[in-house]
Design brief:
Blueprint (H helix, E strand, L loop, with lengths): L1 E4 L1 H11 L4 H8 L3 H8 L7 H11 L3 H10 L1 E12 L5 H14 L3 E5 L2 H7 L10 H24 L5 E7 L11 H11 L3 H5 L4 E5 L22 H15 L5 E4 L5 H16 L5 E10 L3 H6 L3 E10 L7 E9 L2 E11 L4 E9 L1 H8 L9 E10 L2 E7 L6 E8 L14 E4 L8 H4 L6
Parallel strand pairs: 2-4, 2-5, 3-4, 5-6
Antiparallel strand pairs: 1-2, 7-11, 7-14, 7-15, 8-9, 8-12, 9-10, 10-11, 12-13, 13-14
Helix pairs in contact: 2-3, 8-9
Length: about 450
Amino acid sequence: MKNDYDFGNFLYELRRQAQLTQAELADRLGVTDKAVSKWENGRAKPGTELLRRLSALYGISVEELLAKREETKTMEITKIVLTGGPCAGKTTAMTRIYEHFENRGYKVLIIPETATELINGGVSPKTCGTVLDFQVELAKLQLAKEAAFENAAKTMNAAKILIVCDRGIMDGKAYLDPVDYAAWRQKLGASEVDLRDNYDAVFHLVTAAKGAAEAYTLSNNAARTETVEEATVLDDKVIAVWTGHPHLRVIDNSTDFEDKLRRLLAEIDGFLGEPEPFEIERKFLIAYPDIRWLETYPSCRKVEIIQTYLNAPEGGERRVRQRGSDGSFIYVETVKKPISDIKRVETERRLTQSEYLNCLLDADMTRHPIRKTRYCLTWENQYFEIDVYPFWDDKAIVEIELQKEDTPVHFPKELKIIKEVTGDPAYKNAALARNTNV
């Protein structure tokens, strides 16, 4: 997420003090209200001549406005979760993440695992009245810690801050039955979308119990009690509770531990855009999927999406997306620049609902909004996104993002592949949005 201590906020306060609407200010300056909105959202800055007119309007010196414009800086705060099954290597991974990203110019903040802190302090599911009681207090403390770290980050003199959570709030769901989970959410007063998608990305390290059982141990964590079999089951549950997040990556035990950590760092690098934010995506046309199977499979979550294309420079793509379920949504702006058929530079920005509505004013009127139901499916440690469109009843699209272009893809037998359509312009959402039948 981005926090702009910037000129836009300064201009907003001046306009508010002058008791002007964006439309009224635009009329006085001879610009559009969209231009004023972009200034205040930090997406553009007025030129020198407009600054002179703003100076006269607000009774502030041109020099002060120019100084404010040049002083503008953007602080980037990114909050990620490192989760996984028992004995997955998180402790060592945290040290590597800290060293790796501090060397890349980030200020790295580590939020310790809340469950371990409580258990080592004598507060556990065994000492509390019920497992639900323990998970409620754990979640409250987790949320308070995250808020404290985020607020502290905003005061720091750093351009790039990476907050790494040793487990996230949704891990608690893996320890609760459906009735207790509903009660847990009610006590927290938040929807699943609010809790799960509050993080920018989630990275799951698979327990050593799956694929590296000889390395599984209880000796390095006094709070760990699970057997190999219990650890395997718990690992699957943790993956399931995070499935549905816009950016979930699963790091398995297909290599030795050192390479497992290298793959983790490469995935975080790719997400953060080090050296630049690219994604490698493959896309397949499939027969209309078995919806009942998808909706009952434990590691699958349904998400409703409305995607609107915005005006963008030639060759680029800009869109906003409303994403969520059960009336709870997040809003994201995405800008894409193609490099090859399957590789592209992509940057994302989380929006408030107000910012999202402002962006809709800049919609590309030659394209229809795309509505689709997305099924997020974790299968053999790969993360598939299956898009079902209301205008197709015989086919759908499945996408998968990869860390390397030659990574093999393993599909569940329930998905019937018709053909790969990676790079085929006819199956891009941007093309479907121009279809008059949509």
